[in-house]
Amino acid sequence: GKLTGVVGSPGYAAPEVLSHQPYNQSVDIFSAGCTYYFAVACKQPFLGSTVTGTLRLTNRCRPHFPKKQFSHVSAGLVELIMSCMSKDPSKRPAACQGLDRFSAFQAQLAFGHEGEQR
Q1: 88-95: which pairs have CB atoms within 8 A and are 24 or more residues apart?
Q2: pLDDT tens digits for 42-82?
Q3: Contact assessment for residue 41 and residue 85, using Cβ atoms and an 8 Å cutoff
């Protein structure tokens, strides 16, 4: 079923929520992608200088993946985060699929490629 209402935190709420469009559980996948982005990069993917700026950047949904912050993780993990943060909800992975895929990459969040703890 479709849900309505504005919910979520600035920088983590999905674009369809911010645009007052009906949405489904895929908004949680978007938020998870933002959270994993933060876990890898140590910064929010959509951080403006004001709350309004953060909401605007989130609604545009054009995250950057700077090499400096993402060089220690695999391209597969970056692709998974990107798919979770897709502006198009139909392109986001299903919850069980995303969780299974994140589990496979979990060690990369705690350890770099060289096995050094972060």
Answers
A1: 89/14, 89/16, 89/23, 89/24, 89/26, 89/27, 89/30, 90/26, 92/26, 92/29, 92/30, 92/33, 93/29, 94/29, 95/25, 95/28, 95/29
A2: 999 999 999 999 999 999 999 999 999 999 888 989 999 99
A3: no
